[in-house]
Specification:
- The protein has 3 helices and 12 strands; from the N terminus they run E-H-E-E-E-E-E-H-E-E-E-E-E-E-H.
- It has 239 residues and is α+β, with helices and mostly antiparallel strands.
- The longest helix is centred in the C-terminal third of the chain and has 24 residues.
- The mean pLDDT is 89.
């Protein structure tokens, strides 16, 4: 009796041929690039990324299945460690060959067709199926932009299990040792909901503009104190 090959046995981690034409899918929503950039920026500011780690935005993650290359480009992904120079992964990224499996993949939903939930089990494979059964990314995050609805799934025994938020509505993501949640406010002149990171004690990881604002507030504080000392006949420079 001839046994049907399993999916696992047909997965090959192979580099894309140089002449492979990557899919050129347009960004669904103007907010997607800024959401992704904001996530990475705060990680950089907080020194949460090492020289070997990598975040990607709409960047091809590839693998060969059933002798066909499959490429999916999550809206945002976190790879804990790459094993090659970043200049070698400018077109796409192949886990196992060039570094770790992405620990977190995110999709920002803006359309109603539901492709991010697709479990289509054959080529070119649905996104959910690809991340869960082929890539086996430990965390899959879905964020619906218009409603600001956030869902987090963790891979448990080969199946994505939906996680429950804590009392603040945030989700603990083990790979980064940070909470992920929704924050409402202004960035780039736009008032909307953003995805942001919090530390375990509840400290919000700042964006660059917030760091600048904090420095300016501290400068004004110091200047005010110096003026008070001078008014009392004390030279602050001698303290």
């Amino acid at each position: 009796m001839v046994q049907t090959p399993t999916l696992e046995s047909q997965i090959r981690w192979e580099l894309l041929p140089k002449d492979f034409i990557l899919p050129d899918e347009p960004v669904d929503n103007i907010n997607q690039p800024s959401l992704a950039a904001a996530l990475t920026e705060s990680l950089v500011n907080a020194d949460k990324l090492t020289s070997e780690s990598l975040t990607t935005t709409n960047y091809g993650i590839c693998v060969q299945v059933e002798q066909q290359f499959v490429v999916k480009a999550p809206d945002w992904a976190y790879i804990p460690r790459i094993s090659v120079p970043k200049t070698e992964i400018e077109r796409s990224y192949t886990p196992q060959i060039q570094g770790d499996i992405p620990a977190i993949v995110m999709e920002f939903l803006s359309e109603s067709e539901g492709g991010e939930y697709s479990i289509k089990p054959n080529h070119p494979y649905g996104k959910w199926f690809f991340y869960e059964k082929i890539l086996k990314a430990p965390y899959y995050v879905l964020f619906e932009i218009q409603s600001a609805h956030l869902e987090v799934y963790q891979l448990e025994k080969g199946v994505y299990k939906r996680q429950n938020p804590d009392e603040t509505g945030r989700f603990w993501l083990v790979p980064l040792q940070l909470y992920l949640g929704v924050w409402n406010g202004v960035r780039e002149g736009r008032q909307k909901s953003w995805l942001r990171w919090w530390t375990e004690p509840g400290e919000l990881l700042p964006w660059g503009v917030e760091l600048v604002q904090e420095l300016e507030i501290e400068r004004q504080r110091s200047e005010k104190l110096a003026n008070l000392l001078r008014a009392q006949g004390i030279d602050p420079d001698l303290l």
